[in-house]
Amino acid sequence: MAASSNSVGGEIDVVVTRRDVEADGIISLELRDAGGGPLPAFTAGSHIDVMVTADLTRQYSLMNDPAETDRYVIGVLREPNSRGGSAAVHDHFLVGRHATISTPRNHFPLTEGAGRTILLAGGIGVTPMLAMAHRLTALGADFALHYCARTKTRAAFLDLIDASAFAARAHIHFDDGAPEQYFSAERDLSPIDDAHLYVCGPGGFMDFVIGGAKALGWPHDNIHLEYFSNTIVEDGNRAFTVRLARSGRELTIPADKSIANVLKENGVAVPVACEEGICGACLTGVISGLPHHRDVFMTDEEHEANKEMTLCCSRAKGDLLVLDI
Fold this sequence. Notes:
The longest helix is centred in the middle third of the chain and has 14 residues, at 126-139. This protein is globular. The strands form four sheets. Strands 1, 2, 3, 4, 5, 6 and 7 form a seven-stranded antiparallel sheet that branches. Strands 10-9-8-11-12 form a five-stranded parallel sheet, sandwiched between helices. The protein has a five-stranded mixed sheet with strand order 14-13-19-15-17. The protein is of the alpha/beta class. It has three domains: 7-102, Translation factors (Elongation Factor Tu (Ef-tu), domain 3), CATH 2.40.30; 116-227, Nucleotide-binding domain of ferredoxin-NADP reductase (FNR) module (Rossmann fold); 240-323, Roll (Ubiquitin-like (UB roll)). The chain is built from seven helices and 19 strands. 18% of the residues lie in helices and 32% in strands.
């Protein structure tokens, strides 16, 4: 991955060069290198960390063609229950605004060379699918894009899709539309040999699609997921102890605080970004003890192995966790 001329230590100084209202509550931002140079290359499915404020970082998928090296484009939904991130982007990221972003990372990679690819998006989950559609078009691959939205006014990037080289492969489904255009797992997810399915959207949508795909016989390894929020909610938190293996230091994690927060309060630096178990920035090795996994970043197999855990949301099943810190 080639470094930007304005990239230092994995961070890039960019400027907002275009801002468009794409739908109710959704904007797109075009980001270019503040020094005028090229940006690091990215692959379909990649995201960047955007430093929204000095204390607030959020992740956004790159939605433009991965062949472009002069800009990144992201889509941002103003979340009704925003914890500050999306609201700050909507209110303050205007044309001319400088911002610090990370170099692209990809936890949702596209399997190139699949027999067929189905891209299935719910709401703002369409953003990584657009980059994938660009890439699959360039490869001459067999694919379909299905985009589900509540209403046409809340469906972003329809003009972009209509004008794209993959317009004929795109199928738009509205919850308030005619019944014949509803998304149908039986019709739209018919599995074939070596087909791969990519799904991104709200939690309820994800559960619906995954259930439908599994009922149709889709292999687990051919279903690829990216969550935009963590819908795992559990009550009954209890206090436990964390031991830092490298120093032997022990810290009590009270019921109302995360491991990451307690570490920060005690001067122990750990990388934290999304704060809800989506991005994996705070993934940390577990030496002993059983984690109570609450993230949506790791796979079921990784959860069962208990070798790592996310410190921003996961907790302990017992009284003591020994971490590789």
